[in-house]
Amino acid sequence: MREFLVEITTTIPEGTSQEEVDRRRSAEAVRARELASTGHLARLWRPVGELRSIGVWRAADEEELREKVLGTLPLHPWMSFAVTPLEPHPNDPGRTGGTS
């Protein structure tokens, strides 16, 4: 699987009931745990004071990431995504294996 840096901004449509927001957020938490258990969601952060998320996600390619991973999030219709494909850096201190 390839890794992707994904920035997610969620914008709740005006007029959406708090009940609907709460329902989707609850379902979102469940889905995030499922995606983590399958290896698709590796890490997730929220910048201090901001209403966006930054995460490392995994998929075979960007199409799979967008359609079969991010597209399954309950908040997806309210989200915008900035996807950056990643590759290992030769000086990454967390890198395993030999040098190349």
Provide a compact summary of the structure.
The protein is of the alpha+beta class and 100 residues long. The chain is built from two helices and four strands, in the order βαββαβ.
Question: Which terms summarize this structure?
Answer:
single chain; Alpha-Beta Plaits; 2 helices; 28% helix; elongated
SSE topology sketch:
Layout: E1 2-10, H1 18-37, E2 41-45, E3 52-59, H2 62-69, E4 79-86
Mass-distribution shape: elongated
Number of helical segments? Answer: 2
Q: Main β-sheet: number of strands, strand sense, barrel status?
A: 4 strands, antiparallel
Residue share in helix: 25-40%
Count every beta strand, where a strand is a DSSP E run of 2 or more residues: 4
The name CATH uses for the topology is Alpha-Beta Plaits
The computed structural class is: alpha+beta
For the termini, the CA-CA separation is: 19 Å
Q: Strands of the largest sheet, in order across it?
A: 2-3-1-4
What is the domain total for the residues?
Answer: 1
Structure notes:
The protein is an alpha+beta fold and 100 residues long. It has one domain (2-86): 2-Layer Sandwich (Alpha-Beta Plaits), CATH 3.30.70. Helices cover 28% and strands 30% of the residues. It has two helices and four strands; from the N terminus they run βαββαβ. It has helices at 18-37, 62-69; strands at 2-10, 41-45, 52-59, 79-86. The protein has a four-stranded antiparallel β-sheet. The two termini are 19 Å apart.
